[in-house]
């Protein structure tokens, strides 16, 4: 039995949040709640179970994040909240968002437990129980079975993008994990769809949940959607032509197959574009470097499979291009939801071969079911005929430093070295990412070689480290 959420509030200050959590909201510069936050947070803060339908970019992480942080007892050194995510990229994004929201909570420990990464560091992080665990179901289940992670004190369990976790075959692991948590826990389930498998999971795991559903009209910012019909053999040439025409500062090109991501990225590189591929067959370090380079503006085009792009955290993504239309209209909505976040305008382009017309018609039909009667917007464009001379370059370049958190290196140390011994102005330096054994910094492309030379000749925090441009 579900209960519909009441009329929502609009300001975070209307909620019974502690000053510490309001400090995190201020630090993230949140002003008013998004629809999913406004509809779900009152019930979440009351301790109710919630099942929420909300698309990518709707603000759901802050909704469940504030809820689970609100229920923490910081005097207890036990794991009190678990967030399960379908991919390690999304888990990493959620963990970082939680840390930002919890800036006012002293000594909060959040552990990231994801598959595809070495087990030993994750085991070490559990020697002292974290307050919050964010992870993928398989790895969390593994660590629970090894008795490295105790779930007896869990107060809040979050299933984030539950539909994707079921699609990826995690149902058995999820049921096992949930069965090991206290029956008195609060369970929050977020999904892009309320398909029958989601309903079944909710019925089994949630107690009299409040149901929240944010429709596309309320949650989706303004996205200009344009479709182009093209012969299959000329898709790459048309893709290049559209990148030249629109010249997006940052763009994700979605492919349905992993092998296509490599081929399309390679073709774009041949045409002179700064493009990189991202898919599940890559080693984790390579995936990390691709995501770093795209998010710090060292790469303008990311060619990705759907699963690999889950959890992609890039502010102000200018455009999304469907190299192929997905077979599921809901996946299309997920894809285009990555542009035009926070109410800003965005662009979604789709390349449609003749055999994909049925998918376009299906998409139109799904829109009509949801009350959106707008026709699909079709345009024509000519594929390029050769290698262009005006492919836009990325604004930044990435330097890799072979040292990280284990070397006690901090972003401020890197910034100080670049503005000090290297002689760069602060406005030439972009995003800095510090990992356990490596660090990455974006610098203005024209200054990259000079920065590498100066850093190799000088020191960072009084020590010399290997520095390279990637």
TrEMBL record:
Keywords: ATP-binding, Helicase, Hydrolase, Nucleotide-binding. Belongs to the DEAD box helicase family. Its EC number is 3.6.4.13. It comes from the Bacteria. Residues 238-382 form the Helicase C-terminal domain. SUPFAM superfamilies: P-loop containing nucleoside triphosphate hydrolases. Gene3D superfamilies: 3.30.70.330, P-loop containing nucleotide triphosphate hydrolases. It comes from Lysobacter korlensis. SMART domains: AAA, DEXDc, HELICc. InterPro entries: AAA+_ATPase, DbpA/CsdA_RNA-bd_dom, DEAD/DEAH_box_helicase_dom, DEAD/DEAH_RhlB, DEAD_box_RNA_helicase, Helicase_ATP-bd, Helicase_C-like, Nucleotide-bd_a/b_plait_sf. It is an enzyme of class 3 (hydrolase). It holds the Pfam family DbpA. This is ATP-dependent RNA helicase DbpA. Residues 10-38 form the DEAD-box RNA helicase Q domain. A motif (Q motif) lies at residues 10-38. One of its GO terms (molecular function) is hydrolase activity. Residues 41-212 form the Helicase ATP-binding domain.
